[in-house]
């Protein structure tokens, strides 16, 4: 589970408060101090943690609450709402239109997992019936085109790139033009990354952006930088019109919470989080279900989305009809087992999403 340590610490703090015989100021303070400690360890900015504490205290005024109120429930709800507010940038990302050619440009620093994320993004939409294609405009890093080619071949996604052309602007322009002619409705352009925020990187991004005229620019960021994500996201946002952010490597670092909250503070919508190296370890980011899972409260909506992904829509009415008539054959059982296997590791998807429900 992403941020399992942070979620466990917050859940334990809430549980200890719920188990207290009397909910008084001491119980509330102990709970909030424990949650604050967990958030600070996850590299969330001190100011954000302090503001969250103050907001919860304003909402939960124990002296003013009437005797009949469920204080435990009110405190839990206040904590949930404040965590949602901390991770919510308050604005939605641009929505692509299926059937109409849409160009998405990926930008970011080198080593953030940009090329892998491009393929994951394409694969995610491919499963939903889109026609994605990949363009490798990364001429700076040796092996970038080979990596994209290997990933795209594995995911059965068309790709475009060149071993001889050194101008990333020309490659991007030619690739986008070719796939538009072939009626692909999601054209993803992978651009060069750099070791640090160089002026040359931003200039190249602006040139590729001007040549391809993308509908959406996505900034890919490594979660391990924690709250430093704020400055990085701001720098990119000021150079190109970043419309959304994808945070990678959420499975392997304790600073993921800091990165999430820092990006949200820049008012950039987070649309996906990378939770592993495999193609399917890529989740759409939605604040409320994410906080639900973080607090061990389960996520029915995410669970149902996963089921709809693996059980084809055209098979669902037929399956329901057979089950309602009492026809449950070994063939149906085999197909359902295959569908469950497509959902990925049981610990990652099934148990985590339906726990505590």
Task: Describe the overall structure.
This protein is α/β, with parallel strands linked by helices. Helix 7 (168-181) packs parallel to helix 8 (199-212) and helix 12 (300-310) packs across helix 15. Helices cover 53% and strands 11% of the residues. The chain has 15 helices and eight strands. Helix 6 (144-155) links the parallel strand 2 (132-137) and strand 3. The relative contact order is 0.12. The protein is globular and about 75 Å long. It starts with a helix and ends with a helix. It has an eight-stranded mixed beta sheet, with helices on both faces.
List keywords for this structure.
single chain; 357 residues; alpha/beta; 53% helix; 11% strand; disordered C terminus
Strand order of the largest sheet: 3-2-4-1-5-6-7-8
Mean pLDDT: 80
Low-confidence stretches: 351-357
Give the termini distance in whole angstroms. Answer: 17 Å
Order of helices and strands: HHHHEHEHEHEHEHEHEEHHHHH
The main β sheet shows up as: 8 strands, mixed
Shape: globular
Strand content: 5-15%
- Rounded to the nearest angstrom, the radius of gyration is 23 Å
Tally of helical segments: 15
* DSSP strand tally: 8
DSSP helix fraction: 40-55%
Class derived from helix and strand content: alpha/beta
Write the layout of secondary structure elements.
Elements: H1 4-19, H2 25-41, H3 46-59, H4 71-87, E1 102-108, H5 114-127, E2 132-137, H6 144-155, E3 159-160, H7 168-181, E4 186-191, H8 199-212, E5 216-222, H9 229-239, E6 244-248, H10 256-265, E7 270-274, E8 282-284, H11 287-294, H12 300-310, H13 316-324, H14 330-342, H15 346-354
Parallel strand pairs: 1-4, 1-5, 2-3, 2-4, 5-6, 6-7
Antiparallel strand pairs: 7-8
Helix pairs in contact: 1-2, 2-3, 3-4, 4-11, 5-6, 7-8, 12-15
